[in-house]
Write a sequence for this structure.
């Protein structure tokens, strides 16, 4: 039987999308060219938004217990402590704390959830070509021609899907070579956050990882390092910097890598029956820990819309809102992470003077700390200006994130908003209005509330607010368009 969706790539983005689609009853095949799951840490910052995505999917599990809480970031310049920036604290945005946790651990939880939902990953299955037409697509993978309705390319920065569809990926390099290593090290620094050391154009950063004396150490490569350094050369340089700046030493090595930091954004997130998400659509500096979380947000957004289209409850034009909502998020992340990278790795005496005398000391300012923490959390992401947003209303507006909260279900049972979401929608308020929403959306959880009713999307954003059935009908018809099929009861 042909799958309704083929997801290419079994990283956090692809797995998030696959879990969301399977939760909605969509048949999915997940293909990945790797022989087996990765065991190295790679990305390690789970922002509050990422925690919420996993929570709604039922994939969070014990990650908060296994991860390290992030408390602060300390910045040292020329041997002097210039800033101590508290992070990981509860924000004004009423969200969970972020975590330092390996990407491999996150993927493991997502694979477990996918298995519970009846899905799996097909390893060692590289995609070699994709051909799309108005009614579907054919994916060539592992010697098989897979016919499907939709393809989601979540296959990373070198995306085969993006290249096969001829989608441009313009951008510029930021740092030609960046070194990192996960190591066991003797390092007399706090394991409650990250520490960085700056000397002129030199940058060194260390992040604690779960496990005894395990750290991630990272730095731009010096000009005299060979073009393709091996593990010994990478560790040799990072170890010398660590000894120079901290007096610490590297014991054993778990993993090393070298990569180029690029800033790139796809020309489009959708071309007919093919969509892109995560690093296949946007790449940027890892400083700030935004990449994995942005990709997971892409996946949750596109999956619930794709499920509505596949079920026949919405017209395919609903998918146009995916790019309109998520591309501005990626653009903002590219801008902020690029700016952070350029500030920290100051090029030129004037820029370094600005960094050391103004930018870094400002990190001690409580107002600046709140502003940066709120933005980095991704809890402020809003789709107010997107095509699904309603007219302007006071207070919480359609498109805004709705924080998790304790509520009562229609029968009086205590529950949480996020327990009710994903894949279904939730309506806080009138049961009669919930019945109106069900006619077009399928499952809609009814939760008790006072005042105007609020219809909440599966991704936790406010869809509609009001008290009129006619207004809700109009919003549903405008948003979902003419369905391809008569929705089932």
């Amino acid at each position: 039987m042909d799958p309704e969706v083929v997801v290419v790539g079994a990283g956090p983005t692809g797995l998030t999308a696959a879990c969301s689609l399977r939760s909605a009853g969509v048949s999915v095949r997940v293909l990945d060219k790797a022989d087996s799951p990765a065991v190295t840490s790679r990305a390690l910052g789970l922002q509050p938004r990422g925690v919420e995505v996993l929570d709604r999917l039922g994939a969070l599990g014990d990650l908060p217990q296994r991860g390290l809480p992030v408390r602060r970031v300390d910045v040292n310049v020329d041997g002097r402590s210039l800033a101590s920036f508290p992070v990981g604290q509860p924000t004004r945005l009423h969200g969970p704390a972020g975590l330092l946790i390996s990407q491999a651990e996150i993927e493991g939880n997502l694979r477990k959830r996918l298995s519970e939902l009846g899905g799996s990953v097909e390893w060692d299955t590289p995609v070699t070509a994709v051909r799309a037409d108005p009614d579907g697509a054919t994916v060539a993978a592992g010697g098989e021609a897979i016919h499907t309705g939709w393809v989601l390319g979540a296959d990373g920065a070198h995306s085969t899907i993006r290249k096969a569809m001829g989608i441009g990926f313009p951008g510029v390099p930021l740092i030609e070579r960046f070194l990192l290593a996960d190591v066991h090290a003797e390092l007399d620094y706090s394991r409650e956050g990250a520490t960085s050391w700056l000397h002129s154009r030199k940058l060194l950063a260390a992040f604690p990882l779960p496990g005894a004396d395990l750290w991630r150490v990272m730095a731009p490569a010096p000009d005299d390092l060979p073009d393709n350094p091996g593990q010994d050369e990478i560790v040799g340089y990072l170890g010398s910097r660590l000894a120079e700046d901290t007096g610490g030493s590297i014991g054993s090595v778990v993993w090393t890598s070298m990569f180029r930091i690029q800033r790139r954004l796809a020309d489009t997130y959708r071309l007919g029956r093919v969509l892109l998400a995560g690093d296949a659509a946007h790449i940027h500096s890892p400083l700030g820990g935004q990449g994995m979380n942005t990709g997971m947000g892409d996946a949750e957004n596109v999956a619930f819309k794709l499920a509505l289209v596949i079920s026949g409850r919405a017209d395919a034009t609903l998918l146009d809102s995916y790019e309109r909502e998520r591309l501005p998020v990626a653009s903002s992340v590219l801008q902020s992470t690029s700016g952070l990278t350029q500030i920290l790795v100051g090029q030129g005496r004037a820029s370094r003077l600005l960094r050391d005398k103004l930018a870094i000391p400002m990190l001690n300012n409580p107002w600046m700390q709140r502003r940066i923490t709120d933005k980095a959390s991704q809890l402020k992401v809003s789709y107010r200006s997107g095509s699904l947003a309603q007219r302007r209303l006071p207070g919480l507006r359609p498109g805004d994130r709705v924080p998790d909260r304790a509520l009562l279900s229609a029968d009086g049972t205590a529950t949480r908003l996020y327990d009710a979401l994903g894949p279904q929608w939730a309506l806080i308020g009138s049961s009669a209005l919930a019945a109106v929403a069900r006619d077009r959306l399928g499952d809609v959880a009814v939760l008790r509330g006072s005042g105007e009713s609020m219809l909440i999307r599966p991704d936790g954003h406010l869809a509609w607010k009001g008290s009129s059935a006619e207004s809700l009908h109009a919003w549903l018809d405008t948003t979902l368009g003419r369905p391809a099929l008569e929705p089932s009861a």
